Recover the amino acids of this structure.
């Protein structure tokens, strides 16, 4: 089944404790992206990747890191999480970068930082 | 800059009612426009899109027309069903198609 998977689905952590949210797609998609969803703010793009080893900042990259060492994986790293990073996070992928193709979204990761 | 403004929700309609969800945008380049839908507990799914002015995107009875003169992309459906209850997001991308901008989402509840 073609899908985008994220792990974990739920995470409660404390301020300053490094964490990684994994994202994997099995569709051989070139483009991958991370978003956060907050009430009243909608979805905001954190980082995106146009291909292996090619990443760029979205609208709200501060406090986040990403890497794209393999085509299928695009982990989101929070080196020192803070309470304002409590949010619902979505990973998405699309067949080609630089086009207007459909994005396929993962099920989301709900992160709480205490 | 680039941004999307959607009508405030929540919206509650009776089954078979007509739906309009307003979306307007500002863009520094020539945008492509999208509507995504999010069902409870799930990720977003593409509902429809339009990539140039006067294009009409349509899917599952929903329609939206790309109006460059009014910078709008309003979502419409002639007769909603209970199964249409979800959150609807308007979105745009410009130029390279790599950076996306979403609206705040409009929650729709359809009652029998």
């Amino acid at each position: 089944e073609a899908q985008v998977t994220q792990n974990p689905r739920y995470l409660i952590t404390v301020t300053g404790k490094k964490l990684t949210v994994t994202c994997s797609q099995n569709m051989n998609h070139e483009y991958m992206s991370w978003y956060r969803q907050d009430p009243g703010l909608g979805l905001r793009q954190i980082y995106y990747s146009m291909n292996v080893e090619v990443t760029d900042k979205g609208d709200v990259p501060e406090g986040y890191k990403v890497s794209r060492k393999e085509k299928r994986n695009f982990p989101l790293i929070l080196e020192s999480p803070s309470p304002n990073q409590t949010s619902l996070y979505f990973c998405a992928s699309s067949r080609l970068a630089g086009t207007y193709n459909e994005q396929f979204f993962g099920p989301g990761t709900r992160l709480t930082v205490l | 800059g680039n941004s999307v403004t959607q009508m405030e929700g929540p919206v509650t309609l009776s089954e078979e009612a007509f739906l309009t969800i307003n979306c307007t945008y500002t863009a520094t380049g020539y945008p492509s426009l999208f509507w995504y839908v999010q069902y409870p507990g799930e990720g977003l799914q593409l509902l429809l899109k339009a990539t140039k002015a006067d294009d009409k995107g349509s899917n599952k009875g929903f329609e939206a027309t790309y109006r460059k003169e009014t910078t709008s992309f309003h979502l419409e459906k002639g007769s909603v069903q209970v199964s249409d209850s979800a959150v609807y997001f308007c979105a745009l991308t410009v130029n390279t198609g790599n950076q996306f901008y979403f609206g705040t989402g409009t929650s729709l509840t359809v009652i029998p």
